[in-house]
Amino acid sequence: MVAHGAMATAGKVENELQHYVPLGSIVMCVDPYANKIEGELVAMDEPTGMIIIKSVSNDQKEDLTVLNRELLTEFEVKKYAPNNTRGAFMPEKIVSESAVRKAISEKEEAINRVGPKDVSLAGRELFKVINKTYTNLEWRGNVIQGLDGDFIVHPPYKSNDVKGNTEDAVARIKKVVDKFHQDFVKKHGAQSDS
Question: 0.90 exceeded by the pTM?
Answer without folding.
Answer: no
